[in-house]
Amino acid sequence: MPRNLAKTGTAANAPAVHAEPGGAPTTPSRARLEAVLPDGHLRVRTPDGAEWACEWLDTGSAPNPPLGAGDILLVMPPGDDGSAALVLGRIGLYRPGALPPTLVLGATDSVSLRCGESSVDLRADGKVMIRGDDVLVRAKGTQRIRAGTVAIN
User: Fold this and answer.
1) Which domains does the chain have, with CATH numbers?
2) Taking the complete model, does pTM exceed 0.90, yes or no?
3) For site-directed labelling of 73, which of 34, 98, 126, 136 has its Cα 20 to 30 A away?
C-alpha cells in the first residue's frame, strides 16, 4: 500500500500518464529526492509538486548507490491498484567506475577473502589467518615480526 505524503501525490490525482488497458501507469518521470525515510522508502517530489513515498528497484547486481537529498531520480508513479511509486534509478552524467582512495570492509564477526585454495580471514577476536599452499611475504625495507612468541615450524 503506497504512503502518499501529500494530497497532490495520491494515485487518484497524480499527473496523467500513459496507461495500459489495466490502468497501470507506464511512463516514468523525473522527481527530486527529498529524503530517505527510516523505513527505507524514498520521499520524492515531482516538478508539479506531487510527493510520494517510493520503493527502490533493487536489481541485485550491485550494492545500492548512495543517494542524497536533491538527487534527480527516474520514478514510476503510483499505480491505480494501490501499488507504491517506484524509483528506477538516479539521473545524472555517466561516471566510469573509479577505485576509491581507501576501501574499508567491515563486519561484526569476520571478514574473509577467498580465491581458490587461498584465504585471508580477519576475526573480531583479533586473530588473522592467512592460508595458502605457498605464502610469500616481500618487503623493500625492513621486515619485522613482533609478537609475544614467534613459533617457526
Assistant:
1) 3-91 (2.40.50.140)
2) no
3) 98
